[in-house]
Amino acid sequence: MTGKRATGPLRWITAALCGLLAAAAAMGVAELAAGLLGRASSSPLFAVGAAFIDLTPVWLKDFAIRHFGSNDKTVLLIGLGAGITVAALVIGLVSKLRLVFGLIGLAAFGTVGVVAALTRPVAEPVDALPSAVGALVGMAALTLLARGVRPSPITPPEPAVTHQAAQGTATPADGGATEVLDSDGPQHRPKDSRPKDSRPKDTGTGIDRRRVLLTGAGVIGVAAAGGVSGRVLLHSGDVSSVRAKLRLPQPASPARPVPPGAQVRLPGMTPFRTSNRDFYRVDTALTLPQVDPRDWTLRIHGMVARPVEMTFDDLLREALIERDITLSCVSNQVGGDLAGNARWLGAPLAPLLRRAGIRTGADQILSRSSDGMTLSTPIETILDGRDALIAVGMNGEPLPIVHGFPARMVVPGLYGYVSATKWVVDLKVTRFATDHAYWTKRGYADQAPIKTFSRIDVPKPLANVKAGRVAVAGTAWAQHRGVDAVEWQVDDGPWRQARLAPVPGLDTWRQWISEWDAAPGSHTLRCRATDGTGRTQPDHRTPPFPDGATGWHSVVVTVT
Ligand SMILES: Nc1nc2c(c(=O)[nH]1)N[C@H]1C(S)=C(S)[C@@H](COP(=O)(O)O)O[C@H]1N2
Ligand SMILES: [Mo]
Q: Is 325 helix (H, G, I), strand (E, B) or coil?
């Protein structure tokens, strides 16, 4: 290499961009391959993202849920995209030193994708293909691009005097940069009146611009066509239209009506019934499982006398019940909002298990979703008479896809991670000593009844309120034990009883309200609830890991 070529920043920039283009081609073609296979989880982006989720330590997952809540996956994909971009630019740069370094980089990329895809819980050998094919295409693209960038032995690097003179201050390298970096290319620019033949073939940077541009355009085309058609193919497996046409039967046992006062009417108050659109979402599914109810079956097996396999129609022929039940997530911090209250329609789970015949010694139901997620639930909780369901409907519609279409478990009183399996397809009757589920393998508790929780919703933290009468209100829950009292205090003053709103049963959250004669100044409001067993929330703060947070919620407000 001549000194001039080696020092031109343009060549480094071009090389980095070539790395980016090669990686884009790899990803696009891999996406197409995943689409042709009809297996979203084999796409390297999603396989690596899913592997990342599985390898995420508990503290980082708590951090992500705390800061990003239901947007954690978007944040992950953006982070992954940024990481891939940086790696691709580096691959481009090292390929300028030696092409083989770049090729090794792309092969390593592909290997990570293959390993991630093959270690998914539902992996099949074909899932290796998208990453492998993508990496090969990326390597071919990088080789082609590098040929254009590398000095061509037959084209002597003659300085393009005419052109650069026209640009005035341009150095040889800058002159090239203007053109190579402009994706339109000078030949497509109408204002460019320079005759074609006066355009130098080589700017002296060792770059055959025309060749790089054409190859680059081709590579971008492959990347875009692959990516778009792959996405379209994967989207064709989408079950939203099947869901839209599905009609669910009426419940044999309808829900008790929600008492008129259940909703505290106050601006800023949480709705008693959470709409499907506003319902929180927590799961490990980077690509939403698309489960067609016509293909869905539920297997009940393991320590049973008679293994059962039922279809969706079989399930709908059960005597369905409809119930208002509040779900909540173990990841809630004190005052958190990872909870929602919906009207669920579904088949009672206890009779299905009894029909299969639970063998003595079994103490766990290990439920599995179509994407291989596992959750463990204590059998005795399911059988103790509460409304444990295989739910198919949510607030009068089929379950939304994000909430488990076509069927999920719901068990009142247990945190979601030990009960609320979405896209459920398999129930294994087993023992806690034998089988471990996704979160319990990571140290979360086997037994996780929801801890009594109370929150001040109004006034909001750091609100400014006028001195005088101020409404203080919030939401409390202790599913299946019920909320019997909520107390609140100002600063460290006496605890006062709040008025409790009526509820349809023990399994939903409960709203509360009180009045405060607010004096000017900065004040801390605090609340605590007592459940149906007479136990009051402890002051002591503990984190969500391993079985749910404790502590009193407080908000600081300014009264003027
Ligand atoms: N298949 C599957 N089901 C799952 C999970 C999951 O990651 N995968 N997460 C559980 C957790 S931790 C919670 S809190 C609830 C949340 O249910 P939602 O997203 O419908 O609110 O689903 C549970 N069911
Ligand atoms: Mo959760």
A: strand
Q: Which among 496, 501, 557 is positioned nearest to 528, based on CA atoms?
A: 496
Which ligand 1 atom is at minimum distance from the Cα of 284? 7
Best CA proximity match to 313, nearest among 403, 406, 230: 406
- Mean of the pLDDT values across residues 210-238? 90
Is the Cβ–Cβ distance between 192 and 136 less than 8 Å?
no
**Which of 466, 530, 506, 514 is closest to 269 using CA atoms?**
514
Q: Give yes or no for residue 329 CB within 6 A of ligand 1.
A: yes
* DSSP secondary structure, 442-500, as one string: TT--S--BPPPEEEEEESPTT-EE-SEEEEEEEEEE-TTT-EEEEEEEETT---EEPEE
Q: Is the CB of 438 under 6 A from ligand 1?
A: no
From atom 15 of ligand 1, which residue's Cα is the shortest distance away?
416
Q: Is the CB of 45 under 6 A from ligand 1?
A: no
Confidence of residue 458 (pLDDT cuts 50, 70, 90): very high
The pTM (predicted TM-score) of the whole model is: 0.87
pLDDT tens digits for range 25-63:
999 999 999 999 999 999 999 999 999 999 988 888 888
Arithmetic mean of pLDDT, 438-456: 97
φ, ψ for residue 465, nearest 5 deg: -125, 155
pLDDT tens, 135-146? 999 999 999 998
Type of residue at 465? V
Q: Would you state the structure tokens that stand for residue 312, as one six-digit string? A: 């969706």
- Residue 178, pLDDT > 60, answer no
Q: Angle of helix 129-149 relative to helix 72-97, nearest 10 degrees? A: 40
Q: Which atom of ligand 1 is nearest to the CA of 282?
A: 19
- In the chain, the domains with their CATH numbers are 9-152+204-235 (no CATH), 297-442 (3.90.420.10), 453-559 (2.60.40.650)
Query: How many angstroms separate the most distant Cα atoms in the chain?
Result: 91
* Whether residue 27 has its Cβ less than 6 Å from ligand 1: no
Q: Hey, is 138 helix, strand or coil?
A: helix
By the 8 A CB rule, do 469 and 515 touch? yes
Q: Look at 88-97, 210-219, 290-299 and tell me which has the smallest mean pLDDT.
A: 210-219
| Burial tier of 387 (Cβ tally within 10 Å: 0-12, 13-18, 19+) | buried
| Residue of 120, 367, 417, 547 to test ligand 1 pocket, by largest number of atoms within 8 Å of CB | 417
